[in-house]
Amino acid sequence: MDGRKEQWSSKLGFILSSAGAAIGLGAIWKFPYVTGMNGGGAFFLVFIAFTLFIGLPMLVSEFVIGRGAGKEAISAYAKLAPDSLWPWVGRLGLIGSFLLLSFYSVAGGWVLIYTAMSIPGMIISGSANYPELFGTITSSPAVTLLGLALFILINVVVLSFGIQNGIEKANKYMMPLLFIFFIIIVIRALTLEGAMEGVRFFLTPSFENITGESILYALGQSFFALAVGFSVLVTYSSYLERDVSLPSSAGWVAIMNIFVSMLAGLAIFPAVFSFGLEPTEGPGLLFIVLPTVFSQMPLGELFLSLFLLLFLFATLTSSFSLFEIMISAFTEKKREARKSISLVTGLIVFLAGIPAALSFSILKDFQIFGKNVFDATDFLVSNILLPVGCLLIALFIVHRMDKKLVEQEFMTATAASPALYAGWRWLMQWIVPMGIIIVFINLITG
């Protein structure tokens, strides 16, 4: 592995860390409100199809590139395609991760603030107005900037100490607990009066609600939720030993992601309809519905605090991967400077996140193509840069990367037939790029 100091200690550690990179705000926070705004069940079905036939092959591709090169994203493309423009795919990933973090960290700050408020029982109360509380928090410049700063600080501290002893160990305990508490919430949500109406909205496809823009959002969400397109998992897989099956690992990550997305929908939408809220609530959906659900549970304050702590962890594991692609790019030849590079990176991301943090207060009237800074950056990253990144990665692995190396990485430690490899390569050659191009055409002509 080219002398790298750290590697994942086990296959489970790698899978849980990769799942942690994927399972965060994308699956738990963003998926429910994007689904609610795009028709419910039909959107969920399209999302699953994109995840399995485009997102999963992309996930395998990033794993193949990363372990095949044994280097972080930019250096990986430079090693596999020297004296070419392909390293710009890694640079695009770095830029995209930076832009993504500029608004993702703002939402992470909201989670952090909610978590801190929940511990002394400041959120759940008999007279609480949860939409008003969320509006108060997001419209306060001081609170949002404090949340942003603290969220980034946690990232800087953890990442400055490396990977194996921090992220990996925590994932092995926190990710299973996240699943357990999610299931508890789902069970409680499904027992609410009127819950089945929400279940029908989420699981019954109504394709008349699907538009070209909805399909674009579903594609973008499949990329966003699996953390593919920006080569962050190229960097993660570069730390991976050769006795691990890449297709198997990718499959587990995709399955866990779909399962968490389903749990998020089953936790949110029954409660939305039960309490007469709108499924098109937007980014505040989770922050409004979760306290409402927990307020109806015995020991609701305790369970809300525990879940928010776990949700915060899931949010952080995703941001770790985004920070890691940037930090590793500058520590490839200066590993001893990791702490100082982590600090500088965090400071730059904080400054870049200020406009998004103020999008619901001081800068709420500032619009970019009819969207505030937070939403405009989200749209640019999720629906343009991520698909472009995926398209370039697909072209790279099919047309530029050495075919023998690709097959070797795919088949290593894999009890798979050559037909599986051929099927994956066919998807990467035709379905993935065609899917991305068709969705863009629908957007343009729609």
UniProtKB/TrEMBL annotation:
Chief place of localization: membrane
Where does the chain cross the membrane?
A: 12-31, 43-65, 85-104, 142-163, 175-195, 215-240, 252-277, 302-329, 341-360, 380-398, 419-444
The compartments listed are:
Membrane
Q: How does it sit in the membrane?
A: Multi-pass membrane protein
Asked if the Swiss-Prot or TrEMBL record annotates the protein with the keyword Transmembrane helix, the reply is: yes
* InterPro entries in the cross-refs: Na/ntran_symport, SNS_sf, YocR/YhdH-like
Q: Does the keyword Transport apply?
A: yes
Q: Which UniProt keywords apply?
A: Membrane, Symport, Transmembrane, Transmembrane helix, Transport
Q: Name one GO molecular function term.
A: symporter activity
Q: Cellular component per GO?
A: membrane
Q: Which family does it belong to?
A: Belongs to the sodium:neurotransmitter symporter (SNF) (TC 2.A.22) family.
NCBIfam families (UniProt xref) = Na_transp (NF037979)
The molecule here is called Transporter
Q: Which organism is it from?
A: Melghiribacillus thermohalophilus
Q: Recite the lineage of the species.
A: Bacteria, Bacillati, Bacillota, Bacilli, Bacillales
